[in-house]
Amino acid sequence: MSKIAILTSVHSIFDVRIFHKQAKSLVKAGYDVALLAQHDRNEIVDGVKFIALPKPRGRFQRMTGLMFRILRIAIKEKANVYHFHDPELIPVGLILKFFGAKVIYDVHECYPASIRKNEWLPPFMKGIVASIFDVFERVCYHFFDAVTTATEDIARRFRDDKVVIIHNYPVLHYAIDKTDNRSLDESRTVIYVGALSKTRGIGEIVQSLGYVDGRSKVRLKILGMFTEPDFEEEVRSIEHFSKVDFLGQIPHEEVYFHLSSADIGLVVLNPTPGYIKSMPVKMFEYMMTGLPVIASNFPLWKEIVEGNKCGLTVDPMNPQEIAEAIEYLLERPELMKKMGENGRKAVFEKYNWERESGKLLDSYIRVLTGS
Predict the structure, then answer these.
(1) pLDDT for the residue 56
(2) For the chain, which residues score pLDDT lower than 50?
(3) 239 CB-near residues (< 8 Å, 6+ apart)
(4) What structural domains and CATH numbers belong to the chain?
(5) Kind and range of the H or E run holding 281
(6) CB environment 230-241: b (16+ within 10 A), e (fewer)
(7) How far lies 241's CA from each of 65, 206, 368, in Å?
């Protein structure tokens, strides 16, 4: 039995892509899988061996002390393949290659673009750091046995036959039927799932509630955590936050029960370089649950949403346009039902993890056999 060590210094040990999709799929395929990530104890969950890493006190400690700890544990594991998920672990990957290991680099996003919009760097440094990292990443990836990316746009940065695109589509195992959430007061629920930051559009979503006709009795349900305390305070101060049911971070399995009782799924991210060509999993989770989708009017998203006739696209920076889309759908229940069915059909036929997992397993076979 081949042994796999999955490494992350940044992501949660229960990260959906890393644990629920990749690690579980590898275990199901017969691999011995160890996952090194921040956690409070060593344990085995769904066949995956968790190796707990301490929570660092800050970014510097994470990128120095924690990185060396990961390297020591990784070498001790003597895995057949090491699969790492964070750009800051590129040096770890290179050292493991020096010792003759098989290494896969999983690229979740375009990191140079992310650096350019990062708030913790001084403005004059962003372009310089992004350019330096761009060159560094393009040189280093050649040494790895495979590179997996979440989208075609990310893959274009590497231009190599060792790159495998493994989309972050939802797992059909979690699909449940849409339910009717009508209550005695006939309220309706629009829902947002995911991290809460300024560029993810949650401010515009809350503002849009002020433009929705009060007779519609619309409430917004939010599942996720704010990335910045100051931004959370700003959003909570918006006049119509009283119409928000804020649930915070909840276990992945429970998300679908809330989706199943909602009416519309929102994914109106701001038009930043990192988002325009992204494929957010929340959009496909809404579709899988049978929710009509209101999404940003990016060309790729319009192709998915309007091409599959499963929702509407809007200017994500215009709260009034978001509100008009919400009202348009709520006034047309039969259209909402049909859009929900179309989205669900599209996910079951093409946008699902069960199809993508085959590409993951094929890439492991190629890495292990050297083919």
Answers:
(1) 76
(2) 182-184
(3) 210
(4) 3-169+353-369 (3.40.50.2000), 172-349 (3.40.50.2000)
(5) helix 281-288
(6) ebbeebeebebe
(7) 41, 6, 52
- With a CB cutoff of 8 Å and minimum separation 6, the contacts of 236 are none
User: Contacts by 20-25 with C-beta closer than 8 Å and gap 24+?
Assistant: 20/171, 20/252, 21/168, 21/171, 21/353, 21/356, 21/357, 22/83, 22/106, 22/360, 23/48, 24/48, 25/353, 25/357, 25/360, 25/361
Taking the CB of residue 218, how many other CB atoms lie within 10 A of it? 22
pLDDT of residue 183: 47
Closest CA to 175 of 370, 365, 354: 354
Structure tokens at 53: 């890493």
Two tokens, residue 298:
């990016």
Check if the beta carbon of residue 143 is closer than 8 Å to that of residue 225: no
User: Exposed, middle or buried, 1 (CB in 10 Å: 0-12/13-18/19+)?
Assistant: exposed
- 29: CB partners within 8 A, 6+ apart: 361, 364
pLDDT in tens, 250-275: 988 889 999 999 999 999 999 988 89
Greatest Cα pair distance in the chain: 66
User: What tokens appear for 172 in the block?
Assistant: 């059909």
Per-residue model confidence (pLDDT) at position 184 = 43
pLDDT for position 182: 47
Strand partners, 52: 37
Specify the 3-state DSSP secondary structure of 99: coil
Encode pLDDT of 85-121 as tens digits: 999 999 999 999 999 999 999 999 888 777 787 767 7
Please tell me the pTM assigned to this model. 0.87
The C-alpha atoms of residue 76 and residue 67 are separated, in whole angstroms, by 14
Sequence-distant (6+) residues with CB within 8 A of 76 are: none
**Through-space distance between the first and last CA atoms of the chain, rounded to whole angstroms:** 19
Closest CA to 182 of 258, 115, 261: 261
| 3-state DSSP assignment of residue 81 | strand
| Residue of 43, 35, 31 lying closest to 1 (CA atoms) | 31
- Cβ pair 163, 149 in contact under 8 A: yes
